[in-house]
Amino acid sequence: MRNLLCRMSYNGTAYHGFQRQKNAVTIEETVENALDLLTGEKNVIYGCGRTDARVHGINYYFNFKTDSSIPVEKFPLALNSKLPDDISVSMCREVPDDFNARFSAIKKTYRYLIYNDRIRNPFYDKRAMFFPRELDVEKMREAADKIKGTKDFAAFMAQGSPITDTVRSVYSIEIEKKDNIIQIDVCGNGFLYNMVRIIVGTIIDTATGKIKISELDERIASKKRENTGFTAVPDGLYLYDVYYDI
Amino acid sequence: MRNLLCRMSYNGTAYHGFQRQKNAVTIEETVENALDLLTGEKNVIYGCGRTDARVHGINYYFNFKTDSSIPVEKFPLALNSKLPDDISVSMCREVPDDFNARFSAIKKTYRYLIYNDRIRNPFYDKRAMFFPRELDVEKMREAADKIKGTKDFAAFMAQGSPITDTVRSVYSIEIEKKDNIIQIDVCGNGFLYNMVRIIVGTIIDTATGKIKISELDERIASKKRENTGFTAVPDGLYLYDVYYDI
């Protein structure tokens, strides 16, 4: 039985997130159904992480174990022929038996897109946050510098999450503006529930002056969710890449 | 009564084209309903042209006559608040009483996008034609050079169209490739039904060798639809811009 790692991209708009659930279409179920059709097996995929409803994937990884004899290089096109047009597998390779797309991940990058103009753009609808007020990228970068690092990110976790170990390392937060698009890349070793979306909301609230930059360290150290910014909409969030040591 | 010209962009995926029809949602009806809500009038809009189902607009123009006293500079945001997120008005100005967005147009540019890679990209689904075979851009440009000009474009008109005067001027066809996207901009004084989509199909068929470049002049001169290429899918077509002398 081979352990195969696949990379895929998906437009998350039509899905209720990655994880299989009752009475709602998810990425996990859709990919497993396509694999079942292709291999004649009953497949289980192990995703690199959960993404919420309306969140997208650019380079999302999953692995699965199979007795199928289909050569790895044939898998992407064969699997895509069974998948809907909003999901596409672009790579497949064999990995060691103990490899797991989630637990073997060393770090991950999420990308967040903000469409920043007075007038909204229909082609960024459901693919970016629309933010009509002017945003100062330099101020956003200052806020990002305060947020990154290895620390307790409890203030950046959705309330009600059962996780108790809330220390994480955010290695970098890179912010670029091109035309009307502000792109925020957040790279870290792991992320709490809604953490990237709250980081983005906090960066925006700091840039607009709702949160004072001089208060940001203290607000983070308070570990209280009410001391950080709003939760940015899921539509602008993309799992951008995952790094493995294989 | 003022005559107002508006520019809008729209993602055509959810619409059955521009023109109002029974039992199907169209751009025209959606914009007129939004205007009615805003002005309290019963508005009629005059679009710069018909776009088919699933065709998009980047800079689409329409005009309408109104007794509303809303200042022109307030119209875009006010109207957008009544419109769905896949339609956005970005400009409004007063024009002479005899101006008509369709009949006053001097020339128009359509853009066509091809996603040209072995593996499809979910983020170009419904926004470009997916073409997995390699395309030689130089060969495409050679075909485009043969097609452009002032001539009878009957061979580029969908069969069954009632139009009899089929002479049109195509001023330019510009083809650019960036990463996996091939962009074809077609500028002309007017277009027959499906003309841009048949031009694109003919350019592709010539690049792949299905149509010989040496036969292209003769095929065009035959005025017969069966002698030109396939009709490219509507999803990749955008009304890109319209030029007026005002």
| Integer average pLDDT of chain A | 97
Number of strands of chain A: 10
Q: Uncertain segments of chain A of ≥5 residues (pLDDT<50)?
A: none
Spatial shape of chain A: globular
By DSSP (H or I, 4+ residues per run), the number of helices of chain A equals 5
H/E series of chain A: EHEEHEEEHEEEHHE
CATH homology superfamily of the largest domain in chain A = Pseudouridine synthase I, catalytic domain, C-terminal subdomain
Verbal overview:
- The structure is a homodimer of 246-residue chains.
- With 246 residues, chain A is an alpha+beta fold.
- Chain A folds into two domains: 2-95, Alpha-Beta Plaits; 107-244, 2-Layer Sandwich (Alpha-Beta Plaits).
- Helices cover 20% and strands 31% of the residues of chain A.
- Chain A contains five helices and ten strands; from the N terminus they run E-H-E-E-H-E-E-E-H-E-E-E-H-H-E.
- The first copy, chain A, has helices at 27-39, 75-80, 137-147, 195-207, 216-221, and strands spanning 2-10, 46-47, 56-66, 87-95, 105-115, 129-130, 149-152, 167-178, 181-188, 237-244.
- Chains A and B meet through helix 2 and strand 4 of A and helix 2 and strand 4 of B.
